[in-house]
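Example for reference:
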Amino acid sequence: MSTLTDRTAETAAPIIDVLAERWSTRIFDREAVIDEAALASALEAARWAPTAANTQAWRIIVARRGSAAHATVLSSLAGFNSAWAGDAGALIVFVAETTRNGEPLRWAQYDAGQVAAHFTVQAHADGLSTHQMGGFDVDAIAAGFGLGPEFTPVTVMAVGELGDIRTASAELQARENAPRVRRPIAESVLVDD
């Protein structure tokens, strides 16, 4: 395969285009510098994500390719993630503030997820590609950036310009062109009364 198939989701009900067209690539342009204006907009969208009681119990680490921070994040990635994510223009770590003043913030990880989702949608709307990863060493991120015990890294996101699929390995091309699937909504809704 040397071309990328249409990645638009086939949805059971209409959704806005930016959500239907958003997908998680593993092929980034390793030569492209991150679009700083698009990155700033994605960060601003993240800032305006809803949070419980407006606690804003989240933080972000922005690690641009070529920086010491990028090397730290990249070295924390597990297995296959480390093989492709370094090509992205930046690696973003979304961090939950799980305690404040000694009190647990049980919603902090959910709020950090909201922040990542808002970032993702805005980035896609502005032409950036993203891919979120759970396969990383949480302790390595915490140690590498001196995070206190109140902070928990939740996810790492690769963000940058979409790369040329023809430059990717056959395995990566196959993954990129695999059908997009989600289970039917009826299997996810526990009660619909």
